[in-house]
Amino acid sequence: TRKLAVLTSGGDSAGMNAAVRAAVRAALAAGAEVFGVREGLQGLVDGGELIQSLTSADVSGILQLGGTDLGTARSDDFRTRDGRRRAAHNLVERGVDGLVVIGGDGSLTGADLFRREWPALLDELVAAGELAPEAAADHHELGLVGLVGSIDNDMVGTDMTIGADTALHRIIEAVDAIQSTASSHQRTFVIEVMGRRCGYLALMGSLAAGANFVLIPENPPADGWEDTMCDVLSGGRKIGRRASVVLVAEGVVDRHGNPITAHDVRTVLEERLGEDTRVTTLGHVQRGGSPTAFDRYLGTVLGHAATTHLLATDPGAEPQLVGIRGHRVVTSPLMECVEATRSIADVISSNDIDRAMALRGSSFTS
Ligand code: F6P
């Protein structure tokens, strides 16, 4: 019997539960045993009761829940070689030879490193007398599949990350609500949205909720952006617009690399236009709550594909990221996705926007 393990790691996102549920049930249906690892990569390091064999009933009733029922953590221990050696020990002693990691770019980078170190980690455990040589020989490879669970939609290898759609819905509900109070008072609102260095949520949120101006990292505002923004907003007032809304991506910087905060934008609007302006930081409300139909669907098809792929391939096969492109499930080498995602972030940080957009291609993540 093949034995697999599944975990969620990094910032939670809606739809992670759908992915876990589908991964577990697809594995069980194929006759495999599957362990759930609690508290993310930290649970892999700590082992014990945090790694438990799951039944179909264990993942019942979680499809519609936000967050992650398995729990998650940003693990410092897993960043150390000693931590990863303990994690390897915990998997080998249970006979696990395939791992599904559902997390963001940081978690998948860590998991990819773990997979590459795996044979050496087992050698170290044998040398330290903590693992029988036969056990190491039986489990000399670890299969790995990564699914991207993140609200940021910032990873190469999938058109959409699990949880981005739900966060977008939270954002447009909030912006719609703000529009009504803004309109009543003829006020201006500056709304900060999450996304790290990715402007997907801000851009799509502004489009779907009808914001009047948006600032995103992929298009760092050029010198004079304040004049452009003020012209757009005052033009709207002149034609009778009662509410003005500016969306600011949390990671936006200007062409010189200086961060632009929602409070900076408010100051500009108050000083130059004399607008009655309020700042709203949406914060973690964007990460919480029940997943949209799309994220339930996405988590389900990707969770199913993850364990199906692991069970169909040798544990020594190259680790893959399973995502969607053009509504089809696709697999891509995990390491290439991790590296391409990093290089886009580096290029954005260096402000070479034309190159960043070329790397990103026609969509945000492919
Ligand atoms: O990566 C998801 C995300 O929600 C980002 O959009 C945000 O910058 C960050 O995580 C917040 O992290 P934390 O929950 O640790 O404060």
Automatic annotation (TrEMBL):
Compartments in which it is found: Cytoplasm
Residue ranges of every copy of the Phosphofructokinase domain listed in the record: 3-309
Family: Belongs to the phosphofructokinase type A (PFKA) family.
Reported function: Catalyzes the phosphorylation of D-fructose 6-phosphate to fructose 1,6-bisphosphate by ATP, the first committing step of glycolysis.
Protein's name according to its UniProt entry: 6-phosphofructokinase
Organism field: Ilumatobacter fluminis
